[in-house]
Amino acid sequence: MHFVLVIPPLSATGDETYYFWVFQKWLHETKEYKTSIITPSQYISALEDMSRWEFSERSFHFNQYLPSRSIGSHVEIVIQPQSLEERIDNSPPTSTFVDLITRQQAALTNFYVDALREAKTRIRDDIAVVTWLNNASLRAAANELHCPLIFNEFGPFRKPYYRPTAYWDRSGVNGETEVSNRWQTEKPDFVSWKTTAYPNGGALHALRALLAEPASHLVMKEGGQRAKVGVALQVETDSNALAYGGGWTNLSLVNHVSRSEIANDSLLRLHPLGCAVYPGLIDLSPSPLEFLADIEEIWTVNSSLGIEALFWGKKAQIFGDSPVKLIAQMADDESESFLEWFILCYLVPFDLLFDLDYYVWRLGNPSVQEIALRHLSAYETRSKHQWENIPLPPRADGEKLTVDFPSPQQVPAILAQQKLDLAKQQRRIEELESHVTQLENLIERQSTQLDEREASLIDRQRALLAETEASRIEQEALATESRKLRDEL
């Protein structure tokens, strides 16, 4: 089987090479195979730019690849025409990005059909397509040519807090996934397997021990409740929130929280790459895990923190679409089994991302038990390459855990009052400085007077000593003369 990686032609930010690390990861993991890559031309020229963060050691160790600055003869490159990437109107990047994900575009579909058909004819083998993002046009093209299509994405469990995971889905990622259908099909066999053949491995506590780093367990154990509800916000260009938020955004979620009964018992967690600050009590802890440890329940549009919350036994209210959204309608017994299946069988170990032998095996439709055992084996063994550990951020300063950020309407008035307060403080500081100067002058004068008085006293003392000495000499002279007179008599 021949694998074709399709690099998404657009990003929500407008960055033309947003998925360059995916490109690099593919080159690293598939260097022993003949593969094809369908990509915009900018990804080829990006290979020469050594200033890119994808060539940094942190990226190597986090994303687990050794960088490539060239493309070997075993990789066939198919350049996507520039015309397919150009926007017809002045639509913002986020709008055209959502269209790419959710709406089939005839020109793009035709390009994919032609490119895949030519590759299939030339290679004379079955073709499987791999991509990093939902793409309605690519899905239509793959269906037309009966090519298996695999969608990958970062999983919710990532370094440095967990053994890293990835999504592996035949239907889509984040939205339009195969989760519901697979769960209904695999549930009986999975429940039977975990309760008979592997009673401990299917339990959540065992999965926590398997996936979460020891330091993460310590963070969760030491957590204390700072708020009932934690509101996990997302980066504004998150494809998951943009395309599958169901109309919910960070702003609408924050507004909803502010009008709810938990408004005074909620804590906001901003995304580190977010572009906006929202009103409310904002969490300042260095790691999202510390935030998670200090709340009872997560509210989010569809952040992966919702899945992490469920993993640690906390509640999660997910307002948009999510692979775990259906857990809300399940009874407790089923929801626990579903979460175990989701973690162990739906998610895949990051070490298996772009492992083409694994992909061929999965396309052969192994049983759910076989998938679980293979994933367990991958989690329990070391990576093929010994990547350096990503350090955890320093623990939070207990005095700097939150800041109360006002609403934008209040900010101008608050800033104006702060300016008045600062002006008053400045005047008071100037008054105090004047008083200090006066005191310094007084002290200097008193010091001079003391010096003068001390000098005068010393002079008087010296004069008295001189008079005393003269009197003594005079007395001795008189005594001598008196003795002489007595002797003469």
Protein architecture, described:
The chain has 489 residues and is of the alpha/beta class. The protein is built from 17 helices and 13 strands. The protein has helices spanning 20-29, 42-45, 57-63, 93-102, 106-123, 136-145, 179-196, 204-211, 214-222, 239-244, 250-258, 288-293, 305-311, 332-346, 356-363, 368-380, 411-488, and strands spanning 2-6, 35-40, 75-80, 127-131, 149-154, 165-169, 227-232, 266-269, 280-283, 295-300, 315-318, 348-349, 402-405. It has a 7-stranded mixed sheet. A 4-stranded parallel sheet has the order 8-7-10-11, with helices on both faces. Helix 5 (106-123) packs across helix 6 and helix 7 packs across helix 14 (332-346). The N and C termini lie far apart (151 Å).
Explain briefly what this protein structure is.
The protein has 489 residues and is an alpha/beta fold.
Kindly report the average pLDDT value.
90
Uncertain runs are none
Query: How many individual β-strands?
Result: 13
What's the gyration radius in Å? Answer: 38 Å
Largest sheet: 7 strands, mixed
Helix/strand-derived class? alpha/beta
